[in-house]
Design brief:
There is one protein chain. The protein is mainly α. Helix content is 70%, strand content 0%. Helix 4 packs antiparallel against helix 5, helix 5 (80-94) runs antiparallel to helix 6 and helix 7 (113-120) runs antiparallel to helix 8. It is globular, with a radius of gyration of 25 Å. The mean pLDDT is 90.
């Protein structure tokens, strides 16, 4: 697949660049460029990101960063079995537990919420940093919902991180998940309150909490573009009718 001229490979994280030093220079540059493309495309064009990840994987399957990138790309395209295999490979190579929540979520994606819950109670969770532990809590709550255990999902999300007034990178998503679980359980008033709290914390628009809150409050959004087009058409129709009337009058 083509690599844009502005991609040099130097854009990758320094830790990844260090991993690639185990490869011949030209090969390392090719792998780096493909990894840059994965990072560029994974949010907006995940299928293309996946394609670039497969190239990197073919070139350097023994590099942990490549296996991890391939896992993320597969995850983004909902290829959960493939993502799980790549995450497991990366974990074996590095010995870290950072990917544990994602691995558990892959189990959910494969229709195995019970396995995800087992992973949520494993010793590895205690080795995660705070962000990882919150992510694991979100996965566990999702697994509970998969199993129809709404009340248990709500309880799972109740934590010191949820109750805290300080805003952290995970705050908006945690509040959103809690609001969504409350709404699913029919607790609309509480859900409205927590969607509002999610909006307060969502500084980069990572959730659609504002839309969900507006929906609960009965706000209807009109498509401004469609409205403008309708007005333009009405104006054109009126102009056309006026011209026709003028022609009729002359006749």
């Amino acid at each position: 697949m083509p690599i844009p001229e502005d991609v040099t490979g130097d854009e990758i994280d320094k830790d990844v660049r260090q991993e690639l030093q185990s490869l011949p220079k030209t090969l390392a540059e090719d792998v780096a460029k493909n990894l840059v493309m994965v990072a560029r495309l994974i949010d907006e064009e995940p299928e293309r990101a996946y394609a670039y990840s497969r190239i990197a994987l073919r070139l350097a399957s023994r590099v942990a960063a490549v296996r991890e990138a391939a896992g993320f790309a597969a995850y983004a395209t909902q290829k959960y079995a493939e993502a799980l295999a790549e995450f497991r490979a990366a974990r074996r190579m590095t010995g870290t537990v950072e990917l544990w929540p994602l691995m558990a979520d892959c189990e959910r994606g494969l229709g195995r919420p019970e396995k995800a819950l087992d992973m949520a109670g494993a010793p590895e969770v205690q080795k995660l940093d705070k962000a990882g532990q919150v992510e694991m809590r979100l996965v566990a709550a999702g697994a509970r919902r998969d199993m129809g255990q709404l009340d248990a999902a709500i309880v799972t999300l109740q934590s010191s991180e949820l109750a805290s007034n300080s805003v952290q990178p995970w705050t908006a998503r945690l509040r959103y998940a809690y609001a969504d679980a409350l709404l699913a359980a029919g607790r609309e008033g509480e859900a409205r309150e927590w969607f509002a709290k999610a909006v307060e914390a969502d500084r980069d628009g990572s959730t659609d909490a504002s839309d969900r809150l507006a929906e609960l409050e009965g706000v209807e959004f009109m498509d401004a573009l469609v409205e403008d087009e309708d007005e333009d058409q009405d104006g054109a129709d009126r102009a056309g009718q006026a011209a026709q009337d003028d022609d009729d009058h002359k006749d």
